[in-house]
Write a structure and sequence with these properties.
By secondary structure, the chain is of the alpha/beta class. The chain contains 11 helices and 10 strands. One of its GO terms (cellular component) is outer membrane-bounded periplasmic space.
Length: 333
């Protein structure tokens, strides 16, 4: 009996050691990631990121959590992109073209009237060799690992007067973000570009400090710009995307199973993000008209022609890399 009890005791010790080692190593360790974004809690962007946070918390059984900092709490988009690059922020959203501040040829992704549709933009980024090379530069040279790309709406122009043609833009004080492509759009169509922070726009429109602004329809709704602007012109000048970016250094710190959870969560959030923006664009015209907003559809050929010199300047500034990328975009139509 003593011998049997001794064997049982040894067996229990072996099983305990096995249970504490190897396959469970690191499984109880918890990780928290910070996700900073510019839009507020009423936005589609926030809703998609919240879906991501909920997904990873559930699938990881609490081992991976995402703390969300919306409404520019951590700075504007440029500052947060820089923070991810430096490793002080884990996740953010960024347009491909906005990354052109660091990888110059990428700025073509936000130039007005370059892409025919969001599908055209995605093909250009993911299905051409030049687009794939760009993704490598983002990750290997700048610490930006792109886990998903989503549609963020096409930018339209709201104003305090009807825009029936490009001539109606002349002299208009147009709020734009402090981004070269948006500044170029305003100048090229004859407006006076007025950069300011997104959080200041509502009051500026309300007090007529500016005459108009340009944003996707969903942003016009979530920020309630329709309360202080009576007109929206369907200029469709820039097709916005949003990249879900995780710092490569933050990604590398996660165990493989949590990397998988994060990647799956981001992919699902990106799909929801795109579906929300596309769904909005189908319904928001009626919504704005019900709110008393007049929708105009100016002939865009004059707008597109006015932006051709900007495309030419891009090629001139970026040389062979710019020329090849523009040709790749044309080939992806």
């Amino acid at each position: 009996m003593k011998r049997i009890m001794g064997l049982l005791s040894t067996l229990v010790m072996v099983l305990t050691l096995v249970g504490c080692g190897g396959s469970n190593e690191g499984k109880s360790e918890k990780h928290e990631l910070k996700f900073g974004l510019t839009p507020g809690v009423q936005s589609n962007e926030y809703k998609a990121v919240k879906e991501l946070a909920d997904y990873v918390a559930e699938k990881s059984e609490g081992r991976l959590t995402i703390r969300i900092y919306p409404d520019s709490q951590l700075g504007d988009d440029r500052e947060m992109i820089s923070q991810v690059k430096e490793g002080s922020l884990d996740l953010t959203l960024a347009e491909t073209g906005r990354l052109g501040l660091w990888v110059k040829e990428a700025e073509i992704f936000q130039l007005p009237y370059v892409f025919d549709s969001y599908d055209h933009l995605r093909r250009s980024l993911y299905e051409t060799s030049e687009g794939k090379d760009l993704l490598k530069k983002f990750e290997e040279e700048n610490n930006w690992k792109i886990l998903a790309n989503a549609y963020n709406g096409s930018r339209q122009t709201s104003s305090n007067k009807a825009i029936e043609s490009m001539a109606d833009m002349r002299g208009m004080k147009l709020r734009v973000p402090n981004a070269q492509a948006n500044l170029d759009y305003a100048r090229s169509v004859g407006a006076s570009p007025t950069p300011m922070a997104f959080t200041e726009v509502y009051l500026a429109l309300q007090t007529n400090a500016v005459d108009g602004q340009e944003n996707p329809l969903s942003a016009i709704k979530s920020s309630k710009f329709y309360e202080v602007q009576s007109y929206i012109a369907m200029t469709s000048h820039i097709i916005n995307d949003q990249n879900y970016i995780v710092g490569k250094s933050s990604w590398d710190k996660l165990p493989e199973d949590l990397q998988k959870v994060l990647a799956e969560g981001v992919e699902a959030a990106g799909r929801s993000h795109t579906e929300m923006f596309m769904g909005d664009e189908k319904s928001l015209i009626d919504y704005f008209q019900e709110k008393g907003v007049t929708i105009t559809n100016p002939d865009l050929e004059a707008f597109k022609s006015a932006l051709k010199p900007v495309h030419n300047e891009y090629v001139s500034e970026n040389g062979e890399a710019g020329r090849k990328l523009l040709e790749a975009i044309d080939s992806a139509r």
